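Page 37, top half.
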Amino acid sequence: MNLIDGKILAEKIKDKIALDIQAFNGNHPGLAIILVGEKKDSKLYVSLKEKQAGTVGIDAHVYKIEEDIQQDDLLKTIQFLNNDPEVDAILVQLPLPKHLDTDLIVNSIAPDKDIDGFTKENMRRLVSEKGEAGFMPPVYAVILSMLSSINCDLNNKLIYLAVNSDIFEDNLIEILKRQGAKIIDDMRKADIVITAQGKAKIINSSMVKDDVVIIDIGISHDEEGKICGDLDPLSMKEKTGYMSPVPGGVGPMTIAMAFWNTLLAYKKLHNVK
């Protein structure tokens, strides 16, 4: 099975971002990243985002917040960033500690600075029949970009979704249907499988047809403690089609797409064409 190399695709996206920012006469988009607590994975992801942002010309500032912060205090921090003219984009690293209302926190971000694209207002804009401008959530953009990279036209394609979040699934279905795709309930008949279950190697070659395209968003650890996805890559060796690897697939591209949305936010807030 052929691999969809997310690292190569991500570098191409970041190169485009860097070229655009070079034309801003020394100005740089400002990205605020909010990190609550000491969760090891979250700290790693934020560190990667902070370092990579600098390579494309984005000024990233990490706001490290104690895990026991009260909800009202976190909301005040976000409101301050909403009103800060130096901040063009805001990203809250998830998951948040259990005592915080994630939905409330995320929806307190100003829609024009919501580069993760998950505020209710942004999603309303994105699926609006009026064609309003909304940020495509980075992971959705990754899916579309990966499929485009292998010249996969979504029109009349049969897609199976294996995800654990109703909100994530419902909005993704709407995006895919607008591209002409059809959502089905049988993985074995699917032209495209999109999986985000977080269960190590749960999908094998017997569960999908030949010439399938599999976008693996799931992240977990195998019995040896190594990072892996929902897909069992060894079982797919003799299968025809395409798959995104874990690691090196969706992850690098998701960061790149967040930077792309940061660029779009800057352009919108500063009236740059």
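Page 37, bottom half:
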Amino acid sequence: MFGPELTFRPRLSVLSPAQIEQIHQATLELLERTGFQVTHPRALEMLHGAGARVDGKRVRLPAWMVENAIRAAPSRVVLGNRKGERTVFLEGDKYWYGPSVDCIDYLDPMTDERRRFTSDDCRVTATLADVLPNYSWVMTIGMADDVPPDIADRVVARQVFTYTEKPLVFCCKDLRSVRDIYDMALVIAGGEEKFRQAPTIVHYSEPISPLVYYDPAVDKILYCAESGIPLINFPAPQGGSTAPATFAGEVVQASAESLSGLVMAQLARPGASFIYGAFSTIMDMRTTIFSYGAPEMSLMTAAMAQMAQHYRLPFFGTAGCTDAKFPDAQAAAEVAFSCLASALAGANLIHDAGSWLDHGSLASPGFMVLVNEILYMVNQFMGGLPVNDETLALDVMDRVGPGGHYLADDHTVRHFKDVWYSKGLFDRTIYQLWQSHGAKRFEERLAVRTAKVMQHKPAPLPDDVLKELAAMAQHWS
């Protein structure tokens, strides 16, 4: 009667088309006039040979060189799970949430004890990421304090491979570590051809703000490009400290830092899978911290997401983290704000969801469970409001009429499950019923829910794969 359903998803824009073009032109100017610092001999040779102006360790890129690299990079990257199924599609404004890396400490969900993160804690967090449905991919979350530092990055990667089927975004200390983790991924995938069809790993690398690369990072960029490993090049500028204090200036520097890595990757192998982005936030001038809960972080993430969509590049976003010390009211408020903002901006591969408390230093299973619950709310909102003859319900309203009710109507039976209901974490009961059920406050309900989820048993790897991974580990050093 009223035509086909009109599909519309909520969207957030923080930059106008004219502002996007201004930031793009400023980024090109920064790379051409100021450039960036590289000392890696092979990268310098490649850059010079391709048309960059190289003066010692300073490299300046002409605008055409940057724009050629943007055009050469694929506009989508697809990741796969352990079964070889293509599950995460980084394209346009689609978004997918996952946790993060390199937490130093671990918060025990039953005792609130804070201690150093260990390799067994990685088993717990990987298991949670496997079972919590709103995490589409995983990271290693913490740095294992119980194993030698030289192999810790590979130990936690092996834990994740063992205890979740989801794609892994990893970072590591050097080229040898990348190779070892890639070799594990190839064994699990069943060879290079199957890996290329649905890559199960993505490497996460960082230039140093402002505008510096150290040699091991360049080694990893070139190796990933040449080996077919999707690469994230993700600076972490801090407004007022390692980047301009103005938000637009910080976005320009962040964009230039990420795109400089894109140029090197495309020189190594045109068409190499590349994911653009930056962790742009502020220095809190009262505490000097790199803030993970600042609203300005979400604002700049949204701006960078729009730049990624302008460039037709996949984007690595940030949300779901907090400066709070516990999964408390501050954490929930900062997480809800950032997760919704990132989804509205279409920030593709969104990291830090539920894994970073205390500005990036603390992992918490309880926090992961809390953020997973908030993501249900975000996803419900992002589903929009379907409009068609069935949802407009004119016949239903006419049938029920003035003064009637809809409780027993077939239309209600068909649609009441369209509503999201929390599974025991967010409470909607009346006060007397809440009291009769034990008067559990939120923190108690979170502990109960976390303990239940931690009982999940991930699908095991085949015995022959486990044996091969164990044999590989014998040669790590």
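Margin note: The chain has 18 helices and 18 strands.
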